[in-house]
Write a structure and sequence with these properties.
The protein has about 500 residues and is of the alpha/beta class. The chain is about 45% helix and about 20% strand.
Amino acid sequence: MITTKNPLKIQSFCLLFATFLFLAKWTVGQTKTSNTAKKVKITGKITNPSSFKHAGQFHNEPIHFYIDNWLFDQEFVEIPNDDGEFRFAVNLSQSTPAYFTYGDYIGKMFWTPGDELHITFDYNVFRATLMFSGKGSVQNSFFADFERKFDTQGTQGEIESNLHYTHNRFSAYINVMKQNELAFLRQYIAQKSTSSAFQGWAKAEIQYRAANHIHKHYFQEAPSPTDGYQSFATQYILNNETALVSNEYLKFLDNHLRQLCVRDPKEVRQARRERKELWPVRAYELSKTVYRGAVKEHAQAKLIMSMIDAEEANAQQLNTDFQRTATDTGLKRLVSKRYEKLAKFLAAPLPSGAKLHTISDSNPATFKQVLAEHKGKVLYIDFWASWCKPCIAEMRFSKDLHQNYQGKNVAFLYFSSDETEGSWKANIARYHLNGSHYLMGNNFKNKAYEALQVYGLPRYVLIDQTGKVVLSSAPPPSSPDAKKEIDKLLR
């Protein structure tokens, strides 16, 4: 199968491969190091490998391996040779779940120190041909057999389409699926020789994956005291340290805290909205009473990393508390290292030509009043948010467009929908965005969106010198048409 990809992709593959050579020296899949690390050696052969064309030649797509744990972001990349063969090794000191991706396919794995696995599959018929052999193959073959029977990737679409069921019907549907999967696991364990670590992990994955599916149904409905959530939650062990190896269990811990946050008393939720406080801040406090020991520290580490990934300044207070109270030195080191990058980002100096305005819900200013302050100029308006990837992708073009009209009768206005100031200011600094910047409160934002019928981000608007909206959906900064339209108004 031939697929054409971006020619620049091969350069990133080389960089990722270099990253692999570095990471392969690490002991991964855990927060504490050990002197008993052993290699996991993996070889494989892909029949009909996917490929892309670069510089007139075809190259095989790389195969990516990952530790299946949301606290770790290691990626191991191998580029198969012309015959579709690949190999790599990684140090491990304890068993850990992992997975690989190739094209659109995902293959689950379970690595144990000392494993020597050989993987084969035909890319055109992946599920039917995926096979494991060698030391450790019995446990890993479970995944191939499991997928052939249940097709979890394909079933995901069916689950999404059934979210319209009543809660009782949806829960019953998911529980039947869970019982069938557990029965398959019990039968497999009875027939094959597998480790207790694998058995505990596989059971937790099935049980908590089902719980996370049911969580989706709760999240799509407004919570109520009679919706049965507390009864549902008590069916599962909240403080299950043996399940910490399971990514689905870690997701469950996160989902449970989110549910508790949305079920807070009305006045508590209102106070959080007024403070523009994101839910992980409240969830972090709840974790201190809901969870304990290693479970609490893993849940808290994930909350902090969620804040870091969202580039929120409030991550600082959570990180400070975590470094003071946590006992797992590996987790503390992991969180601290991730936070250091955010701290540098948040501390970047603002450009001298940036004028920042925060419009809280208590501020009576209206959208029309803000526009009136710039009357007499051509206005290029950018509605954006730090969490909006397409918005951020346009920022470097916005900077160039702005510089093109320095000293001319054009004003650039940026209206952000960010919840808090941290990432708002940091991205203004990151992209050196001069101009007038407004962090919108909910009241101001709703009126501005209503006035210009903004239904999604990013959105760009052009207003002429008289204050008339010329284009309510103007070309983005990356488009040559943006300059053409501005030039028209200046003429």
